[in-house]
Design goal:
Length: 649
């Protein structure tokens, strides 16, 4: 711990005596400073032991000393050292009384003890404390590294971290779900922070948020008696080397982190970043491999696809799967955000200069503070010596792997020797709009990781293609994600008929195939595309292939091209009726609705059946097409329904 006034009093070489403030000697001392100014406050930073000889002070004036001591206390001076035997053999009563009234510790410095000796003692104690912190930080790094590469992976790392900070720790995946926590009770505490985690994930990384403050129940490693009344201080750190957050680390303590604890947290951030990120080369290789597997499946070569995939995608190709096709309409806000996100993911996150002292010095207390500062650079003290790449690329999620966060695959890849450094962050800007396709991919991969499923995620231009096990958690997570988004938008089915609202640019649309095997992958892809088209036309975010045939086909006719075809096909009949020489359109509609039954259709129109026969011959003459052809009758009926729908809207 840093030096205190008590430790200086106990120092055998200083021979200091306590003249006032005996009850405040455990106060830490940040520095020892000599000043003979009548008002040294402008030059104080707080936490100093001020050393004086009173050469320039009216030390015998009670009012002057009262103001002097009051200003020192207000500036954060923790103690006053008075040189005895220089100007005064004893401390003037006015100064001693003022120090007692303000509760400021007053130390007597004998003539044989030079001020430089006190400064050296404080400096040496601070250096020793920093050395202990660095040593403890390196030891914490070694322990955390051993835990990270062990069989338990992040769970063991979080347990070690919680022990080092005397608090609790939790890990959130890219979707904001808690995947591990230590101790076990901390999972409940972490679950209550999902709103703050979501706020952090919406900001460009690297970023951090401090929530709450002060000590209280639940701030240490013991489970709080009342889980609803926790007053700990929680620091949320984003994980990832790019601007997109790949995960979040939460650390809860009863007080601001000390130097050694902060080293441990930064080591954990670096290690967890390495386990949640994959190098760019690895991602690109997986993307090419995944695209090749998908092409082979669509080309009807399941055996070749299975041979190329090997064990990379687990048993995905050995059981029924669902194929998903998702896209974002171009021109909208989300499409522009996707373009910006793709460009930002290719750029490394800006490195930050290490802060001179921990950020906690300014964030203690209650409330919430936000900063973007923990960067990737050459940090002071601890570091992992390995780096990680940026971007999303193709996704592969498995539930096992040595030293990896569930869902990121086995192992880690050596990088560039970058280390996580404590950073003084820049001011936080406006949250960047999320990329809907990337969010969907993260959601499905995270869900698959939690249950040990394998999913194949292939970005395809402006689309995203996913193969996921039928009935698995990834497919369910996709459906739940769609329901949540539509609920937030207050959106139900919105047909795109004439007069209906135009599609919003940020509406993700998803088509999901029926269960299929590798041999039927091409059919599953067609089903997913058909479902995607229906989702786009119906204004729904997600449509499964089983829902394509549900309801009426008529809403699918609400398309400008279909209406243009219908108008062109029936224009001659409408022009004929406009002259007043008969109602051919109504007669055609009645005849088609009665399946060509003359008597029934004539009765509906209130005309003789011979009149109806004459009108149908006129329809054939005007259109130049035979009503005996079932295709012609079908096209005319759909044209009538399309124009009727247009008229009703």
């Amino acid at each position: 711990m840093p030096p205190t006034l008590a430790s200086l009093v106990r120092h055998p070489g200083l021979k200091l005596s306590v003249l006032a403030g005996e009850d405040r000697l455990e106060t830490p001392v940040r520095w020892a400073h000599v000043s003979e100014l009548a008002d040294p406050v402008p030059y104080m930073d707080g936490g100093e032991l001020l050393l004086i000889t009173a050469m320039q002070l009216k030390a015998e004036d009670p009012d002057e000393m009262s103001r002097y001591v009051r200003r020192l206390v207000g500036a954060g001076v923790v103690g006053l050292g008075f040189a005895l035997g220089v100007k005064y053999d004893e401390v003037p009563p006015a100064l001693a009384e003022a120090a007692k009234e303000e509760g400021l510790p007053l130390l007597g410095v004998p003539r044989r003890t030079p001020f430089i000796a006190i400064s050296k003692a404080v400096s040496a104690a601070i250096a020793a404390d920093q050395y202990r912190a660095v040593t403890a930080g390196f030891e914490a790094q070694r322990e955390l590294t051993r835990a990270a590469i062990g069989a338990e992976g992040p769970a063991a790392l979080l347990a070690r971290l919680a022990s080092h900070v005397d608090g609790w720790a939790a890990l959130y995946d890219a979707s904001g779900s808690v995947v591990a926590a230590a101790p076990d009770w901390a999972a409940r505490r972490a679950a209550r922070l999902v709103t703050d985690v979501e706020r952090l994930r919406s900001r460009p990384g690297p970023a951090s948020i401090v929530v709450g403050g002060g000590g209280g129940a639940g701030a240490t490693g013991a489970e709080p008696a009342d889980d609803t009344a926790v007053a700990d201080r929680v620091e949320l750190q984003s994980l990832g080397t790019g601007r997109r957050t790949r995960g979040v680390l939460a650390v809860g303590t009863g007080a601001p982190l000390g130097t050694a604890e902060r080293y441990a947290v930064h080591s954990a951030v670096a290690l967890l970043t390495l386990t949640t990120e994959r190098s760019r080369a690895l991602r690109e290789a997986e993307q090419r491999l995944g695209a090749a597997v998908l092409r082979m499946l669509l080309a009807g070569e399941p055996d070749h696809a299975r041979a190329v995939a090997g064990r990379l995608y687990g048993g995905l190709l050995d059981a029924p799967f669902r194929m998903l096709v998702a896209e974002v309409p171009s021109g909208g806000a989300a499409h522009q955000a996707r373009m910006a996100s793709s460009a930002a993911d290719e750029a490394p996150a800006p490195a930050q200069v290490p802060a001179e002292r921990p950020a906690d010095a300014t964030t203690a207390g209650t409330g919430t503070s936000v900063s973007t500062g923990t960067g990737v650079g050459t940090g002071t003290g601890v570091g992992t010596g390995t780096g990680a790449g940026t971007g999303m690329g193709i996704g592969r999620s498995t539930g096992s792997g040595t030293g990896a966060v569930p869902g990121t695959g086995p192992g880690t890849v050596p990088g560039t020797g970058a280390t996580m450094a404590a950073g003084a962050g820049a001011a936080v800007g406006e949250p960047e709009p999320a990329d809907p396709l990337a969010t969907l991919a993260d959601t499905m991969e995270a869900a698959a990781a939690r249950t040990g499923e394998s999913v194949l995620v292939v970005p395809d231009g402006e689309r995203l293609i996913v193969l996921a096990p039928d009935g698995g958690s990834a497919v369910e997570a996709c459906a739940e994600h769609a329901r949540a988004v539509e609920s937030r938008r207050g959106t139900k089915a919105r047909p795109r008929g004439r007069g209906a609202a135009a599609p919003h640019g940020d509406e993700l649309v998803i088509g999901l195939s029926a269960p299929a095997g590798p041999i039927a992958a091409a059919a599953a892809y067609r089903q997913a595309e058909q479902a995607l088209s229906v989702a786009r036309r119906r204004g729904r975010m997600l449509v499964e292939h089983e829902q394509v045939a549900a309801g009426s086909v008529l809403p699918l006719l609400a398309d400008d091209a279909v209406r243009a075809f219908a108008d062109g096909m029936l224009r001659a009949l409408y022009e004929h009726d406009a002259t007043g020489r008969g109602d051919l359109v109504a007669s055609l509609r009645a005849w088609l609705s009665r399946h060509g039954q003359w008597d029934a259709a004539a009765a509906d129109l209130g005309v003789h059946r011979h009149t109806l026969r004459y009108r149908m011959r006129r329809v054939e003459e005007i259109l130049g097409r035979s009503l005996d052809d079932p295709d012609v009758r079908m096209e005319l009926w759909l044209a009538l329904k399309a124009t009727a729908s247009c008229t009703s809207t």
